[in-house]
Every structure is written in structure tokens, then in C-alpha cells.
Design a protein that fits this description.
The structure is a single chain. The protein contains 19 helices and 14 strands. The strands form four sheets. It has a five-stranded mixed beta sheet, sandwiched between helices. With about 525 residues, it is of the alpha+beta class. Keywords: Plasmid. This is IS21 family transposase.
């Protein structure tokens, strides 16, 4: 373990006692609690540097340290490394300190000449100097990020008011995302912080970056996390579906540990300082107006140069993060909700009052619905077994004939409209008879068998006789299948209508009439 460094204030007192007080090394060591050898060393360094007490008293501690130790430092004979550039290079995938040290040694060897006889550091000293540089970048624990590996997301605490005619109608919440290596920032205003807002803003952030990272790291919002666990947090089904769509993973940070996502915490701070602060006096009526105002300020923030590192967030992102991102999927992401349902005995499941068919072999099983704005997908053990266009008509059915049992498929093909149309092909009277048969029953399906039986009579008796029988039945005020069948069977449809007038009884004395009974 190396010895502790001696305080320069105490060394300055030792030099004062030596040059101004004229005390011996032994006396100075006893008075200040130093070893005699330390006093002898630093007095010798001061004499070698040509310093006396008036010159020493005029120097501060940092300047005195440079004057005393300048001649003893051998590091001045070593070539300095550009640790700012090396710090950024270390973020690339596969780049290590050993590789950077080898490149540094090769560069020093190429630049070596007689008038500049510098040599490279050994690997251990090179790593130590880099660690000292990294400590000056941040006082908290440094996290090593790989290119294109992580995207940190969060919401800023402050919000922007939305006003119409001076009356507040809502608040605009600011979603912030930042890449792990470059800190390339994305900001978007949303009307709330629901799960749909979180995932929709994240999807727009991925489009903004032009690629997908391996990990997306939020905190633990209730909108995204069903169970906030330190080791195995449980995400909602919508979040897991979002991750499957983009081929990445969502890994929430530990609860109440903002240091797990320092990149986005810093980006939130920058957004509050350089974007929110500049918009504080503006009046907005909608979230879209807020986003229009954010766009140029966000571009300026990403182009702003670093203070200690070369380049800007935009340049570092283009060089390091962007090439390592995965490609965006071809299909755009859609908001989806999931619901567990059970298949009814009619081979249908219900969502929001509408019923959708599934294969009849799944009757009685619990299935999962994935519902988007336009489609309803039915999943069984993760596999899609049916898909329908979403319908908002409550009480109706969306049925695929192939989903029904074979004995039901033939009957399911018949509808009141189809039966009436078939009857119309035979004749007007036949179509009217079918319509009356359907209207007579409390539900049209109750008349399906009778209608099919009526229409099947045309195969035995022909369309002309069936049309004539229906005409006769309508004139008699009946539309029953059995009556029409008996008309055909008794051949009454073939009888010609009589042209003689109906017989009436002649008047005579034996007919009393109605007045007789009064």
C-alpha cells in the first residue's frame, strides 16, 4: 500500500522553519510530526528549485507543489494520451483498455524523434491515469455503457400548462429518452403518463434514433410494471408485446434508485434547464403546439458541444451509437391490450359486447385476446388461432364458417336475406311466402327449416307449380309449409278458377230474414 501523501501546508511550515527560523532538520521533524528524512528531502527539492522563503511564501500550495515536484516527476518524459477521445472509444463494442493502450504505444512509436524523445506509459500506469481522468468526469460510480446497448427513458417532473382563453384545460408531460454512450437526447410532450403514452413516446423515440437498442431501461411506473421487484420485476402484457415487436428487452431500474439510470436523469435536468426554462413564458393550447416548440430546442441541445469531451451528443451518436443499433421492424407498432376470455359453446369469444368466432376444438378453454385499434387476435398458448377485424357493434357476431363444427357449417351459411333471394328466383309469391314464414317466428332461425323445406318442393314439383301453390296459399291467408305441401299433393294448384258467379238462394216466403228474430 503506498504511503499517504503529506499535506503541502505542513511542508510549507517545514520550509519556513528551515529558511526563516534556521532550525535543524531534527527540530523541524519533532515539531511537525514528520520524519527527518522527509524534511531533508523537501528542503533539498526547494534548494534544487532555487527557492528561498520569500519566494515560497508568495506561492500557494498548488504552485509550490508544481515547483518542488517538477524536477522529480519522470512523467514529463512520457507521452500524454488523449483520454477524452479514449473515453469515447471505450464505449464501442469490443474496445478495451488493453487495445487502446496498444494503439497509444504504436502512435508514440510512430511520432518518436530525436528532438522529442518521449516514451509511452506502461499498461498499469496508462490504466491508472485513465481512471483518474474518469473520476474527474463524474463523482458518482461510473457505469460502462456499450454502443447501442441501452436506452434510458423517464418523464420530467415539471409540466407545461395548456390554456384556452386563459383557462387551464390540461398539462403537457415531457417524456425524455437518452442513449447510453452518447447521451443523445429525445423529448416529446404527451397529454398524460399512461401506459399508452409511455409506449407511444418510446416508439417515437426509436423512430427518432433510427434503430433499436438491446435494452430499454425505465424506472418503475405503475403504468408499465405490474410487480416492482428488485430481482425479477413483472411487466404488463402490453410492455412485453412492445418488446417482442421491436426485438429488444425492457429492464426496469431498481425502485427508488435513480443512479441506475444517470444518463436520462442528466438529460431530464438538461431538458428542464435548456427547453422548459425557455418555454416558461409561452402560452400553449395543445400538446402538438408544445412539440412544435420543442423540436428546434432539442436539435440545439444535441448539437451543443461537450465541456470536457470532444464533439457533441449528436456527433458521438452518429459515430458510436447509431451504427450499433438494430434495425427498426418493417411494420409500425400499434397499441395493444390483452384480455383473458373463455370460449362459449357456440365457438365464440366476447369482447366489448361483440362476439368473434374461434375454432370449435377450443370450446371451453381460456384464451388470450390481443386487441389493437383495428384487429382482434385470439391466442392459445402464444400461438394465434384466429384473427378478426375489430367491430364496435354490440350484440353482433363475426363468424368464420370454417371455425364451426361440420354439422353446423351448412346451416350457418343460410341467412334470411339469402332465403328470400332464393325464393325470389322462383317467383314473387314464393319470396313473399318465405318472408311471411320468417316473420311469423320469434327468431328467424326458427323458420329456417320450414323455409328450406318449402324451397325444396321445387325439386319435386317444379318452380311453376310451387309459385302457383304459394299464390293460392297467400289468397287463403296461410304460409305454413304443410298447407302448401298439401296443395301440391292434392293438385289444387292445377285447378282452373271458375268463371260462373257464385250461387245465391232465390227470394221466397219461407225465408224469414233477420227481422223475424227481433
Amino acid at each position: 500500500m503506498p504511503a499517504l501523501r503529506i499535506n503541502m501546508r505542513k511542508l510549507k511550515d517545514a520550509l519556513r522553519l528551515k529558511f526563516e527560523g534556521g532550525q535543524s532538520h531534527q527540530q523541524i521533524a519533532g515539531a511537525l510530526g514528520l520524519s527527518k528524512g522527509v524534511v531533508t528531502k523537501y528542503v533539498g527539492l526547494a534548494v534544487a528549485a532555487g527557492l528561498d522563503w520569500p519566494a515560497i511564501s508568495a506561492l500557494d500550495e498548488a504552485a509550490l507543489e508544481r515547483r518542488l515536484l517538477a524536477s522529480s516527476r519522470a512523467s514529463q518524459t512520457y507521452a500524454q494520451a488523449d483520454f477524452g477521445r479514449l473515453h469515447q472509444e471505450l464505449g464501442r463494442k469490443g474496445v478495451t483498455l488493453m487495445l487502446l493502450w496498444e494503439e497509444y504505444c504504436a502512435q508514440v512509436g510512430d511520432e518518436h524523434r530525436a528532438d522529442w524523445p518521449l516514451k509511452p506509459w506502461r499498461y498499469s500506469q496508462f490504466c491508472e491515469n485513465y481512471r483518474q481522468f474518469a473520476k474527474r468526469l463524474k463523482r458518482s460510480m461510473r457505469q460502462v455503457h456499450r454502443a447501442g446497448e441501452k436506452l434510458f427513458i423517464d418523464y420530467a417532473g415539471p409540466t407545461l400548462a395548456l390554456r384556452v382563453h386563459g383557462q387551464e384545460i390540461g398539462r403537457a408531460n415531457l417524456f425524455v429518452a437518452a442513449m447510453g454512450v452518447s447521451g443523445y437526447c429525445f423529448c416529446l410532450a404527451t397529454p398524460a403518463q399512461t401506459a399508452r403514452d409511455w409506449l407511444g413516446a418510446t416508439a417515437q423515440a426509436l423512430t427518432f434514433y433510427g434503430g433499436v437498442p438491446q435494452l430499454i431501461i425505465p424506472d418503475n411506473p405503475r403504468a408499465l410494471v405490474t410487480k416492482a421487484d428488485r430481482y425479477e420485476p413483472l411487466l404488463t402484457d402490453s410492455v412485453q408485446d412492445f418488446a417482442r415487436h421491436y426485438g429488444c428487452s425492457v429492464l426496469p431500474a431498481r425502485a427508488y434508485h435513480p443512479q441506475d439510470k444517470p444518463k436520462v436523469e442528466l438529460s431530464v435536468l438538461l431538458v428542464e434547464r435548456w427547453i422548459l426554462a425557455r418555454l416558461r413564458k409561452h402560452q400553449f393550447t395543445s400538446v402538438e403546439e408544445v412539440n412544435d416548440a420543442i423540436t428546434p430546442l432539442l436539435h440545439w441541445l444535441n448539437q451543443r458541444a461537450f465541456q470536457k469531451l470532444p464533439g457533441s451528443r449528436a456527433s458521438v451518436f452518429a459515430q458510436i451509437d447509431a451504427p450499433a443499433l438494430m434495425a427498426l421492424p418493417l411494420q409500425p407498432w400499434e397499441w395493444a391490450v390483452f384480455k383473458t376470455v373463455r370460449v362459449h359453446i357456440d365457438s365464440h369469444v366476447e369482447f366489448e359486447g361483440h362476439r368473434y368466432s374461434v375454432p370449435n376444438a377450443l370450446v371451453g378453454l381460456a384464451l388470450e385476446l390481443r386487441v389493437t385499434a383495428h384487429a382482434v387476435e385470439v391466442l392459445h398458448r402464444g400461438n394465434r388461432v384466429a384473427s378478426h377485424m375489430r367491430c364496435a357493434h354490440k350484440g353482433s357476431f363475426t363468424t368464420v364458417i370454417e371455425h364451426l363444427p361440420e354439422r353446423h357449417q351448412h346451416q350457418a351459411q343460410w341467412t334470411p336475406e339469402r332465403l328470400i333471394a332464393w325464393g325470389a328466383r322462383i317467383g314473387v309469391a314464393c319470396a313473399a311466402t318465405v318472408q311471411k314464414m320468417l316473420q311469423r317466428q320469434p327468431h328467424p332461425e326458427h323458420a329456417y327449416r320450414a323455409c328450406l323445406g318449402l324451397l325444396s318442393l321445387s325439386k319435386r314439383y317444379g318452380d311453376a307449380r310451387l309459385e302457383a301453390a304459394c299464390t293460392l296459399a297467400l289468397s287463403l291467408g296461410t304460409s305454413k309449409y304443410t298447407h302448401i305441401r298439401d296443395i301440391l299433393l292434392n293438385r289444387r294448384d292445377l285447378l282452373q278458377a271458375s268463371t260462373t258467379p257464385e250461387w245465391t238462394s232465390p227470394a221466397h216466403a219461407h225465408v224469414r230474414g233477420a227481422n223475424y228474430y227481433q
